[in-house]
Amino acid sequence: MEFDRPKCLASAAVDALNETDLDVKTAKVNLLAQLWEARSLSLTSKKDMSVPNEPGRPDVPIMVPPHNVPKRSIRSEKGMIALLHAIAHIELNAIDMALDIIARFTNENMPRSFFDGWVIVAKEESKHFNLLRNRLSDFSSFYGALPAHGGLWESAQKTQHSLLARLAIVPLVLEARGLDISPSLISQITKINDNKTADIFRIIYEDEKGHVAVGTKWFRFLCQRHQLDPALTFQKMVNQHFRGPLKPPFNDLARCKSGLTPLFYRSLPTSGH
Ligand SMILES: [Fe+2]
Ligand SMILES: [Fe+2]
Hints:
Elements: H1 9-18, H2 22-37, H3 77-104, H4 112-138, H5 151-158, H6 163-191, H7 195-225, H8 230-241, H9 252-257, H10 262-265
Residues 91, 94, 125, 128, 204, 208 line the site of one fe (ii) ion.
């Protein structure tokens, strides 16, 4: 795949963010990561860089309210396709959210290692998305075959004004939720002997621990920079910017290993389970 070689990290991220063809988008993310890791992209970006409100997306999937997205038992092939499709949609949003973090908060003056972390996240989300898309094709389906919902991108839009808010909601609430549900999902898939799908979810689970760790590291960094208490600030951000209670049970061990200790979330309201 041939396209112009980007010069700076933020413009490469905006270009991938705007891309509507998902093969090209993931290829652009991989090129961005390769160039960044080879130190061939500059960090200096134009201050007037315009970061889109909405990422580039193909015509399908059609967007519907969350309760209209089909949920079925994974014991049926239709159910497995619905699960793979729903998670592929989450991964696509995660690619765009990582790119948005790279491009949007250039005035925060973050160190180079902040961008190292988010470039790895974008690359891994892109890998997850493609693993799930390929698995969908094993079931003669594809990403776009089912409806999806726009709830995740809403969280990105609601936290456009503040990196602290963005880190609290995206990695520390949404991606941490992935850690909570992954072990039981992997065991359900293993029980139905779908080892190929289980292996994909194992890869995703391991990588996502790292994404929460990147989020926690830089959330704590920003709190220290602004002399804020991390746990209290996290609670304030969740109360202000996250709709609805957190959903237990929490995977305390995996969360803790990623630096997200119960002190952050224990006192927040939760839904019954
Ligand atoms: Fe992911
Ligand atoms: Fe992630």
